[in-house]
Specification:
It comes from Rhodanobacter thiooxydans. With about 160 residues, the protein is α+β, with helices and mostly antiparallel strands. The protein has helices at about 15-30, 35-40, 45-50, 95-110, 125-130, 140-145; strands at about 5-10, 55-60, 65-70, 80-85, 115-120, 135, 155. The chain has a seven-stranded mixed sheet with strand order 1-2-3-4-5-7-6, with helices on both faces. About 35% of the residues are buried.
Length: about 160
């Protein structure tokens, strides 16, 4: 991890960044769905109090530039969701730093499966997910994919897939 990037835990004071960072990229590429609005407006209730995690990346001189959540969806299952990086911080490895931290946290929670739902238009993000151990998964798509209208890619984390 870069010396200028630091991981921060969720706090109610940082909730506005979770909402704004994610609304920025979702609105730029798609449209906010009702499920997005619910989670982004109520992160403590929908993620934290339900057994999940939200992490942020703070960049020196720029403040909070990235956010990502683990949403508990079953006894041990977690969805990696709402991962976004401010446009002003792209190219600084913020996404990779954040993804590595959230995978580490998921591992410490015993997440099985750890999965994500996305869209093929998010090619750069999909490449990063693949690089850090996620693989495309038809079973995850069948089980969870209907959650979002825009979902056409489902991936599951496989630690053994790492080089």
């Amino acid at each position: 991890m870069s010396d200028v990037l630091a991981i921060r835990e969720f706090s109610d004071e940082l909730a506005v960044h979770f909402r704004d960072i994610n609304a920025e990229w979702i609105n730029a590429m798609f449209r906010l769905e009702e499920t997005d609005r619910d989670v982004l407006e109520n992160p403590r209730a929908r993620i934290i109090d339900a057994g999940g995690v939200i992490l942020f990346v703070e960049a020196g001189g720029l403040g909070i530039v990235g956010a990502c959540a683990l949403q508990k969806t079953g006894a041990t299952s977690y969805e990696l969701t709402k991962m976004g990086v401010r446009e002003s911080a792209r190219g600084m490895k913020v996404g990779e730093c954040l993804l590595a931290a959230i995978i580490e946290r998921a591992s410490s929670l015993g997440a099985e499966p750890l999965y994500l739902l996305t869209n093929a238009r998010c090619a750069a993000a999909i490449h990063l997910y693949e690089k850090l151990g996620f693989r495309h998964d038809a079973e995850i798509m069948a089980r969870y994919g209907a959650r979002y209208e825009r979902c056409d890619v489902a991936m599951r984390y496989h630690a053994e897939a790492l080089p």
